[in-house]
Design goal:
Layout: E1 3-7, E2 10-12, E3 20-21, E4 23-27, E5 30-35, H1 37-44, E6 49-52, E7 57-60, E8 62-64, H2 69-75, E9 79-80, H3 89-101, E10 109-114, H4 126-132, E11 138-142, E12 147-150, H5 152-157, E13 170-174, E14 180-186, H6 212-221, H7 223-228, E15 231-239, H8 241-253, E16 259-264, H9 269-274, E17 281-282, E18 286-288, E19 291-294, H10 322-334, E20 339-343, H11 346-363, E21 370-373, H12 379-388, E22 391-394, H13 397-410, H14 412-415, H15 421-426, E23 432-433, H16 444-453, H17 470-476, H18 479-484, E24 502-505, E25 522-527, E26 530-534
Parallel strand pairs: 1-6, 2-7, 8-15, 9-10, 10-11, 15-16, 16-18, 19-20, 20-21, 21-22, 22-23
Antiparallel strand pairs: 1-4, 2-3, 4-5, 7-24, 11-12, 12-14, 13-14, 17-18, 24-25, 25-26
Helix pairs in contact: 2-6, 3-4, 6-8, 10-11, 11-12
C-alpha cells in the first residue's frame, strides 16, 4: 500500500464536519485521514512518504465545471492574440504576419483571444488581415469563441462571396455597401472553417478538423499547465464526436491529464437518445455529464439578448426560437439528461427559465439545471432560480478582463449586476466558479481573486456589492463545483474515503491580501493519490 502524508499545512477541507486541519494522508488513491498531525501520522503508520507543506494552504483539487479542455490545448500551440499583448488591429496584423513567415503557403493560420472591443479602431477587417498574408487562409477567433475574423483567402477557400445568406443563429458582417468585412458571428462560423462535425444552429462551431493523433498530443502537453494551476477535474461544456474521440483515445492510453466530464452538445440529442445513453455515465476519469444547449450569443461580442439593446446598437441573437428551445430541453430531460443552457442577457434568461421549468417538470426534485455564464439575471429571475434549483455557472474573470467594456456598453445599472454571485448565495443557491478557458485564464486562483475583488483590469469596481468571501469562492470552485457535476460523493472535499485529489498552494491564501490571490499557483498537485505536479 502506498501512503503519503502532507503535514504542516493549513488545510481548508470543504468538509463541514471537519473544516480545518493540519495534515492529510492518502493511500491507494483515496483520502485516508484528515486532522491533527500526530493523529494522521499514527493512522498512516510507518513507511509513509511525508511531504512538509510549510504552512501552505492545502485544498481539494480545483474543479473547473466549464472549461474547454481540448480547445484550450489547441490555443496553447496557436497564435496568441489576447489583450494586452495584442491591443490593436495593427498588433494583430503583425502577429499574423510573423506566423505566416514561418508557415508553409496554403496552410491555415489560427489565432485565439482577439478582444476587438479594446482596439482603438474597432473591429479588424479581412482587408487588414490581407496585409499580413494572402498566401494562407487566416482565422482569428474572438475572445468569446462566438465569432471570428478571416482574411480573403479563407473566404475564397470556402467559396464564400458577398451574396452568401446568413444562417439561422448567425450572421456575416457587411459594410455599408453590402460587402463582407471578414467578421463572422456565431453559427456563421460553421460555413467558414474546415470543421470536423456539422452542429447546425446548436452553437458556435470551433470543432476544427485536425488529425486525432495531433489533437491528442496537444491535449497531453496541456496537462502540466492544468496541474501547475491546481486543476484536477474539468467539465468540457461543448463536446461533439471530435472531442469525445480524442478524450476516449487518451483515456484508453492512460494519458488523459485530468478528470474530465463531458457535456455533449444538443445536436447529438437524438443520436444519443436512440441508444439510451444519458449522463452520468462513465468512470471517475472520463464521464458524461449534462447536455449543453445555447440560448443567446455572447456578451463580449455583442450578441447577448437583452430587453434593451446595448453597446453599438446590439440587439442580440438566438440559436433557437424560444418555443424550440423549450421543446429541445424537455426532450433531453425526458431522456434523463441534466441540462445546461448558455444564457447571457435578461431576455434570453427568461427564455431559458421557461425551458428549465419544462425540464424540472420531467426530471423531478434533483434536476440540478445549470445556466452557463448566467450573465444578467434580474432579481426576479434569481428568485425563480431558487425555486427550480438552478446552478449558476459563473466566470468572474470576464469582469476583470472586460468590465470596463461592459460598463461602457451596458451602462452602470446593468453592468454592476453582471454575475450577481452574492445575490445568488443569499437566495440559497449554490453558484459555482469556472474559467471558460480558452476564453479566459484557466488558473483557479485568478478566478477566485476576481470573485472576491470584483475589480476591472483598469482597477475600477464592477459590481462591488456582489463580491463574495475567499472561503465562499474556494467552495464554489471545489465542493459546489463537484455538486454541479453530480460528483460530490467522490471529489470536492478532503474527506476520508473520497478520491485523493489534493492541491498544496504556493502560499497560505487566508493570510494573503486579496490583491495577491491571483498570483497563487500550485506548489504540489496530487491526482488519484499520485503526485502529478511538484514545483521545481
Amino acid at each position: 500500500m502506498s501512503t503519503t502524508v502532507i503535514t504542516g499545512g493549513n488545510a481548508i477541507t470543504m468538509d463541514p464536519s471537519n473544516p480545518y486541519a493540519r495534515a492529510v494522508a492518502v493511500r491507494d488513491g483515496r483520502i485516508l485521514a484528515v486532522g491533527r498531525e500526530e493523529d494522521v501520522l499514527a493512522q498512516a503508520g510507518p513507511g509513509a512518504e511525508v511531504v512538509r507543506a510549510g504552512g501552505r494552504s492545502v485544498l481539494p483539487g480545483f474543479i473547473d465545471p466549464h472549461n474547454h479542455l481540448l480547445s484550450t490545448a489547441e490555443t496553447l500551440v496557436a497564435v496568441d492574440a489576447r489583450y494586452p499583448a495584442v491591443g490593436s488591429a495593427a498588433d494583430l496584423v503583425a502577429a499574423v504576419a510573423a506566423e505566416a513567415a514561418r508557415t508553409p503557403a496554403g496552410q491555415w493560420i489560427r489565432a485565439y483571444g482577439m478582444d476587438d472591443a479594446k482596439y482603438p479602431g474597432g473591429r479588424p477587417t479581412r482587408r487588414q488581415l490581407d496585409e499580413a498574408t494572402t498566401e494562407h487562409p487566416v482565422i482569428v477567433y474572438h475572445v468569446s469563441g462566438h465569432q471570428a475574423v478571416v482574411n480573403s483567402a479563407a473566404l475564397s477557400w470556402r467559396g464564400i462571396g458577398d451574396d452568401v445568406a446568413d444562417p439561422a443563429g448567425g450572421a456575416f458582417v457587411r459594410d455599408e455597401g453590402g460587402r463582407l468585412t471578414g467578421m463572422v458571428l456565431d453559427s456563421a462560423m460553421e460555413l467558414l472553417l474546415p470543421v470536423a462535425v456539422d452542429i447546425g444552429c446548436h452553437g458556435p462551431n470551433f470543432h476544427v478538423d485536425l488529425p486525432l493523433e495531433q489533437l491528442r498530443s496537444w491535449l497531453e502537453l496541456a496537462g502540466e499547465t492544468y496541474l501547475r494551476a491546481g486543476v484536477t477535474t474539468v467539465c468540457d461544456p461543448q463536446v461533439s464526436r471530435r472531442e469525445l474521440l480524442v478524450y476516449r483515445s487518451a483515456w484508453e492510453a492512460g494519458t488523459l491529464p485530468v478528470r474530465t466530464a463531458v457535456m455533449p452538445l444538443s445536436h447529438m440529442l437524438d443520436e444519443l437518445s436512440s441508444i439510451g445513453l444519458a449522463g452520468p455515465f462513465g468512470d471517475d476519469r472520463l464521464r458524461f455529464g449534462a447536455m449543453k444547449f445555447y440560448c443567446d450569443g455572447t456578451l463580449l461580442g455583442g450578441t447577448a439578448m437583452f430587453d434593451e439593446p446595448y453597446g453599438e446598437g446590439f440587439t442580440g441573437s438566438l440559436y433557437h426560437q424560444p418555443e424550440q428551445l423549450v421543446d429541445l430541453v424537455r426532450r433531453a430531460a425526458t431522456a434523463d439528461w441534466q441540462i445546461g443552457i448558455h444564457t447571457q442577457g435578461d431576455r434570453a434568461m427568461g427564455y431559458s427559465l421557461e425551458a428549465i421549468k419544462a425540464a424540472v417538470a420531467v426530471s423531478g426534485d434533483d434536476a440540478r439545471p445549470r445556466i452557463e455564464h448566467c450573465g444578467h439575471p434580474t432579481p426576479a429571475q434569481v428568485r425563480e432560480f431558487a425555486a427550480l434549483g438552478v446552478i449558476p455557472v459563473n466566470q468572474p474573470n470576464f469582469l476583470y478582463d472586460s468590465g470596463t467594456d461592459f460598463v461602457r456598453r451596458l451602462g452602470e445599472r446593468r453592468a454592476h449586476r453582471l454575475q450577481p454571485i452574492r445575490e445568488e448565495l443569499d437566495a440559497g443557491l449554490r453558484p459555482v466558479l469556472s474559467s471558460d478557458s480558452f476564453v479566459s485564464s484557466l488558473r483557479p486562483m485568478e478566478t477566485v481573486s476576481n470573485a472576491v475583488r470584483r475589480r476591472t483590469r483598469e482597477g475600477g469596481p464592477i459590481g462591488a456589492e456582489q463580491a463574495i468571501t475567499l472561503e465562499e469562492a474556494l467552495r464554489a470552485h471545489t465542493i459546489d463545483a463537484a455538486y454541479a457535476l453530480r460528483m460530490e460523493d467522490r471529489i470536492g472535499s478532503l474527506t476520508p474515503g473520497k478520491l485523493a485529489d489534493v492541491v498544496v498552494l504556493d502560499g497560505d491564501v487566508r493570510s494573503l491580501p486579496a490583491d495577491a490571490l491571483s498570483g497563487v499557483d500550485a506548489w504540489l498537485t496530487m491526482l488519484d493519490g499520485d503526485i502529478a505536479y511538484r514545483a521545481g
